[in-house]
Design brief:
The complex is a heterodimer of chains A (284) and B (175). Chain A is an alpha+beta fold. Chain A has twelve helices and 14 strands. The model of chain A has no long low-confidence stretch (mean pLDDT 97). Chain B has two domains: 79 residues, Beta-grasp domain (Ubiquitin-like (UB roll), Roll), CATH 3.10.20; 69 residues, DNA polymerase, domain 1, CATH 1.10.150.120.
């Protein structure tokens, strides 16, 4: 099928995009890489009357070093996140997670910011951003504001972004020297995560000193496993110790039950995948 | 959000695009909602690029946009304005098959052939980054392409054959 008719705009600056967005109100949809939006428009599950394509705004693309943080433009495609030496050095788990998104063709078009704004609970970008304490920079008619990842994801496909706002960049505090691993469980190729775990670990002398862990698809939003992070601090980086420390990772979560597995199965998976992710991130 | 297709006259919102496809420059008027694959097939007559699904899973419609593989069913034609597209029809030079096409032919890397254009386009992109891939790496690199005949084994062989032929320099013309 083909999408319904719409007016198309391709602004070359964020200001111009904001003006167009203000003029179109709730009839408008922002087009980033289009790898989620265009398929649903084709199926006519979405039928925006105005499409504002952010693809011509060069300022929204690329990764830069900003001292304490790296800053990733919202329109940076996944494959550029994967190939970025800055991301690899300072946010390894993010690099690894981006490499698991969908398939190569989709990673060439799909964008980092688009995936975050889409906020699919099974999407792979939110959990690593949450684990690393990322901040989302948002431009709106009233100027710029910054929202912590922990406050950005509100519900299924729902974020703190207002209808008249644009996610412009994401600041990721540097985790230089930390190990990182994204452990994703799927049954078939190019599947969405049934459950996945993002782990960043600082280890010294065979022992974990600090850990950051977040879960994908264990609820309507990504979940930071703070109790497990605390339990991991000071734990030897071996299988038995890590298994014990992460055993309760699913406590308090409400994972979905669907064709790929019921909630109990996902709780079980979460503990197994967290152990694997933490061990891999510790270099064990 | 209401849909009011009747509020418009046909052609009211056409966009002019300039795009290079298989080395030829085109200036065309397209509806913004026209998918790249439909522009290629219906406006340019390049039916070598096929539509295999309606869900962006199958990869049969894979083309190159500025040298990287993309699914042309998940792109609007207007998004390619000012850019360069290569389809399966733009691979051969002077009647000589591209090394990847030749390898698919020689290894019988097709059954019904419907997925083949997309498989070849993705394989070319893949071996650019990995000129000496293992079986596992080829399968991973072709994750976005489905063969409903399940004829993957010979596809993997073909991609490896093309990669090693190119590496050995016995085949000219690889990208």
């Amino acid at each position: 099928m083909i999408p319904t008719e719409f007016d198309y705009h391709a602004p070359e600056s964020v200001d111009e995009a904001l003006r167009l967005l203000a003029g179109a109100g709730d009839e408008a949809k922002l087009l980033a890489g289009g790898q989620s939006l265009l398929p649903v428009m084709r199926l006519r599950m979405a039928a925006p009357e105005v499409v504002i394509d952010l693809g011509r705004i060069e300022a929204l693309r690329g990764v830069r070093d900003d001292g304490e943080s790296i800053v990733i433009g919202a329109m940076t495609p996944h494959f550029e996140v994967v190939e970025s030496a800055l991301v690899h050095e300072h946010a390894l788990v993010l690099s690894e997670a981006a490499a698991t998104v969908a398939d190569p063709q989709v990673r060439h078009r799909g964008t980092f910011g688009g995936a975050l704004a889409h906020a699919d609970p099974a999407g792979d970008m939110p959990a690593p951003v949450l684990a690393l304490g990322g901040e989302l920079v948002i431009q709106g008619p009233g100027g710029q504001r910054t929202v912590a990842a922990a406050d950005f994801f509100e519900d299924y496909f729902t974020t703190a972004l207002g209808e008249d706002e644009i996610l412009t960049e994401i600041r990721i505090p540097k985790h230089t020297g930390w190990g990182g691993h994204y452990e994703k469980f799927t049954r078939v190729a190019q599947q969405w995560s049934i459950v996945a775990v993002a782990a960043a670990v600082r280890a010294e002398g065979g022992s974990i000193t600090e850990a950051r862990v977040a879960l994908t698809n264990m609820g309507s939003v990504p979940i930071r496993a703070t109790a497990v992070e605390q339990a991991l601090a000071g734990t030897p980086a071996d299988a038995d110790s890590v298994r014990a420390a992460v055993a309760a990772v699913a406590e308090g979560t409400s994972p979905p039950s669907d064709i790929n597995g019921d909630a109990d199965y996902r709780r079980h998976l979460a503990a197994v995948l967290t152990r694997r992710a933490v061990l891999a991130a510790s270099g064990a | 959000m209401s849909v009011k297709p009747w509020r418009r006259r046909v052609g009211e919102f056409m966009s002019r695009i300039s795009v290079t496809v298989d080395g030829v420059s085109y200036q065309d008027d397209v509806e913004p909602r026209t998918l790249l694959v439909h522009y290629l097939r219906e406006q340019l007559g390049k039916t070598g690029t096929v539509v295999g699904c309606d869900t962006s899973n199958c990869g049969a419609c894979t083309v190159h946009l500025d040298g990287r593989s993309v699914k042309s069913c998940s792109l609007l034609a207007v998004q390619t304005d000012g850019h360069e597209v290569t389809t399966i029809e733009g691979l051969s030079t002077d009647g000589e098959l591209h090394p990847m096409q030749k390898a698919f032919h020689e290894n019988h890397a097709l059954q019904c052939g419907f997925c083949t254009p997309g498989m070849i386009m993705q394989s070319i992109d893949f071996v650019q980054d990995n000129p000496s891939p293992s079986d596992e790496e080829v399968r991973h690199g072709l994750e976005g392409n489905l063969c409903r005949c399940t004829g993957y084994q010979n596809i993997v062989k073909a991609v490896q054959a093309a990669a090693s032929a190119t590496a050995a320099g016995t085949e000219g013309g690889a990208r």
